[in-house]
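Title: Comparing notes on inverse folding

I've been comparing how different people in this forum approach sequence design from structure. To keep things fair, I'm posting one structure and asking everyone to reply with a full sequence. Here's the target:
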């Protein structure tokens, strides 16, 4: 009996984080216990399907934005009254797998989320993804909407039975198609975007919207304006030149997230091969000799990267 007794004593000397069970029986119980997650808790409890989901989901990491990060807090007004959209957003912030902040690395990871609704996801993998990465020493999470969120130092690694919750600095949005993502107001470097709006105008709307698994390399607005001036200076027809550029850099099929920039070459819509580089110094990525200004903008059917030329 001496050995079991010694083992028991030894176990009690282990750190509480290892010995003690998570204090919350499920994700919903944890969320409801947080004074600063009342918006998310209320939205979950409005939909019985979400109550069941958050009460039973296991082996996940949840990225939840506190109340003060929401620009609108009247839950009886749009966008909170759109239950379908809210359902999509709340499933997108749940990533498969358990990711403590110690697992965030300088090279990005792209776990699948629990969002599989085909109204918001047109990917062969079947689910929207999120991105976790350490940027300049800060743990960062990105989902749809074009902006990343930092994991808050005073809200990280909160355990429940079956997973972890990470509080983040900014709410996420549901995935939209490429034209919608880049035609509505958003971050200045992302939306609205002239080159993508012109892609729609030049007959590429169906490819950008409906093709499964698309990567689009689009110009920033400054780069697009400079390209137009160059076309005019060189007496090229801007319309033909823009169309040629867009066909060159719209890639189908294939979703090339930031972790694909490992020196590989990929073939674009026009048959041209472009080289993706820079993973070792992420997020300093390149496409041939163009610099990626904004990487990993997640859309319904793939991903968009914005280039400086």
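Reply #1:
Here's my take.
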């Amino acid at each position: 009996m001496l050995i079991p007794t010694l083992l028991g004593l030894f176990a009690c000397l282990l750190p509480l984080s290892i010995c003690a069970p998570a204090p919350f029986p499920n994700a919903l119980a944890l969320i409801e216990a947080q004074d600063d997650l009342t918006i998310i808790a209320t939205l979950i409890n409005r939909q019985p399907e979400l109550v069941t989901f958050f009460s039973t989901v296991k082996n996940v990491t949840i990225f939840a934005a506190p109340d003060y990060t929401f620009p609108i807090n009247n839950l009886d007004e749009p966008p909170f009254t759109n239950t379908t959209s809210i359902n999509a957003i709340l499933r997108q912030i749940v990533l498969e797998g358990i990711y403590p902040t110690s697992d965030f690395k300088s090279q990005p990871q792209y776990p699948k989320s629990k969002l599989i609704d085909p109204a918001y996801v047109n990917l062969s993998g079947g689910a929207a993804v999120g991105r976790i990465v350490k940027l300049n020493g800060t743990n960062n999470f990105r989902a749809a909407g074009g902006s990343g969120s930092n994991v808050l130092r005073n809200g990280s690694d909160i355990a429940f039975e079956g997973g972890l919750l990470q509080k983040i600095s900014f709410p996420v949005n549901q995935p939209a198609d490429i034209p919608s993502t880049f035609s509505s107001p958003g971050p200045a470097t992302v939306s609205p975007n002239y080159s993508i709006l012109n892609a729609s105008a030049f007959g590429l709307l169906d490819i950008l919207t409906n093709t499964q698994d698309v990567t689009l390399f689009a110009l920033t607005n400054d780069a697009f304006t400079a390209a137009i001036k160059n076309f005019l200076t060189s007496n090229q027809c801007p319309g033909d030149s823009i169309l040629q550029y867009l066909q060159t850099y719209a890639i189908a099929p294939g979703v090339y997230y930031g972790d694909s920039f490992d020196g590989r070459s990929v073939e674009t819509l026009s048959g041209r091969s472009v080289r993706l580089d820079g993973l070792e110094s992420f997020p300093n990525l390149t496409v041939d000799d163009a610099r990626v200004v904004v990487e990993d903008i997640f859309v319904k059917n793939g991903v968009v990267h914005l280039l400086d030329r």
